[in-house]
From TrEMBL:
<keyword id="KW-0479">Metal-binding</keyword>
<keyword id="KW-0540">Nuclease</keyword>
<dbReference type="InterPro" id="IPR003154">
    <property type="entry name" value="S1/P1nuclease"/>
</dbReference>
<dbReference type="GO" id="GO:0003676">
    <property type="term" value="F:nucleic acid binding"/>
</dbReference>
<dbReference type="InterPro" id="IPR008947">
    <property type="entry name" value="PLipase_C/P1_nuclease_dom_sf"/>
</dbReference>
<keyword id="KW-0255">Endonuclease</keyword>
<dbReference type="GO" id="GO:0016788">
    <property type="term" value="F:hydrolase activity, acting on ester bonds"/>
</dbReference>
<dbReference type="GO" id="GO:0006308">
    <property type="term" value="P:DNA catabolic process"/>
</dbReference>
<feature type="signal peptide">
    <location>
        <begin position="1"/>
        <end position="23"/>
    </location>
</feature>
<keyword id="KW-0378">Hydrolase</keyword>
<keyword id="KW-1015">Disulfide bond</keyword>
<dbReference type="GO" id="GO:0004519">
    <property type="term" value="F:endonuclease activity"/>
</dbReference>
<comment type="similarity">
    <text>Belongs to the nuclease type I family.</text>
</comment>
<dbReference type="GO" id="GO:0046872">
    <property type="term" value="F:metal ion binding"/>
</dbReference>
<keyword id="KW-0325">Glycoprotein</keyword>
<dbReference type="Pfam" id="PF02265">
    <property type="entry name" value="S1-P1_nuclease"/>
</dbReference>
<keyword id="KW-0732">Signal</keyword>
Length: 318
């Protein structure tokens, strides 16, 4: 079917509002989530309502806002998976090693995917499930959310444009600086620019691969090896069995985590803070920006495909 033109739905974004300490910050999350098919779009609009301007952009920041509230402290550890690897020399994500207790973003995406269509849950629980999926599919694309070292970089001192901060927060600083410099300073323009890259630009040749999950996923103990992994297969199998007993019954999120984590070795931890703590300028900055753009575009596209399979039965994006 004529996918992109017919299913494209531009998710409205809130004004730029970056808070420190949120990795890519609100901006990053609001840039995620674009290409919804009709039933997914309708579900999103109805479920989020006017409180979130009927769109995934404003709703994506909810999970970050509530995680410090007493009622939601339990959700804090669902935002990441602590990969016990050794960047920059060795990067890896392993389900059993890194998420044996199922308290991590891999298990959370599976959990909320089953909950978002669970007819026994009430409207508030369904909305929460959607907001968690919205947020966690973004978080898993962030290299520092897939890394145990120094609490995902929070404990590593660094400088961004002269301000002392930490490595985790530097990524928000880099994103903000780049959006100000080349995307008109607004999340709307940045999002529109990434969408253009996906539709007709440098990313357009990559999207089939983004949806396939084959490039990075290795067969894992309990996975079927006879079929090709894909977002479609992942979501369909999960919703058919609702089996969340294993660490994660999903192959794609594990592949996404491994992709993000690989950037910890190639890019994120590739610096000498003692020699030059300034990361929002020079080579570090120049190398990081294409990775941030790629990861945001990719996860936004994957989020739409994920919801499209749930509500429209197929990714509707090829
Ligand atoms: C809400 O969404 C509409 C379009 O869907 C947009 O024009 C408007 O600016 C948005 N409002 C806010 C507060 O983001
Ligand atoms: C699944 O979601 C429910 C509701 O938010 C939560 O109480 C539970 O801890 C979650 N389970 C996992 C494994 O994430």
């Amino acid at each position: 079917m004529n996918a992109r033109s017919t299913v494209l739905a531009l998710i409205t974004l809130l004004a730029l509002h970056v808070q420190s300490g949120l990795a890519w910050g609100n901006l990053g999350h609001q840039t995620i989530g674009y290409f919804l098919a009709p039933n997914a779009l309708s579900f999103v609009q109805t479920t989020l309502g006017s409180q979130y301007n009927f769109s995934l952009g404003p709703a994506a920041t909810w999970a970050d806002m509530v995680k410090s509230e007493p009622a939601f402290t339990w959700s804090k550890n669902l935002h990441f998976v602590d990969a016990e690897d050794d960047p920059p020399s060795s990067c890896s994500v392993e389900e059993i090693r890194d998420c044996a207790d199922q308290i991590c973003v891999l298990a959370a995406i599976a959990n909320y995917t089953t909950r978002v269509v669970d007819p026994t849950l009430d409207a508030e629980q369904i909305q929460e499930a959607l907001k968690f999926i919205d947020h966690f599919v973004g978080d898993i694309g962030q290299p520092l959310h897939v890394e145990a070292v120094a609490a995902g970089g929070n404990d590593i001192d660094a400088t961004c444009s002269g301000s002392k901060t930490n490595l985790h927060a530097v990524h928000t600083g880099m994103l903000t600086k780049n959006v100000d410099a080349v995307h008109g300073g607004t999340s709307e323009q940045y999002a529109a620019d990434l969408v253009a890259e996906i539709q007709t630009g440098a990313f357009s040749s990559l999207t089939a691969d983004w949806l396939s999950c084959t490039s990075t996923t290795e067969p894992v103990n309990n996975k079927r090896e006879d079929a090709t992994p894909s977002i479609e297969r992942d979501v369909r199998a999960l919703l058919a069995t609702r089996d969340t007993a294993m660490v994660t019954p999903l192959e794609c999120p594990l592949g996404w985590a491994r992709e993000s984590n690989a950037f910890d070795c190639s890019t994120v931890f590739n610096f000498e803070p003692e020699e030059d703590p300034e990361l929002c300028e020079g080579t570090y900055f120049t190398n990081a920006i294409p990775v941030i753009d790629l990861q945001l575009a990719k996860q936004g596209f994957r989020l739409a495909a994920w919801l499209n399979v749930i509500f429209d039965g197929a990714p509707m994006l090829s």
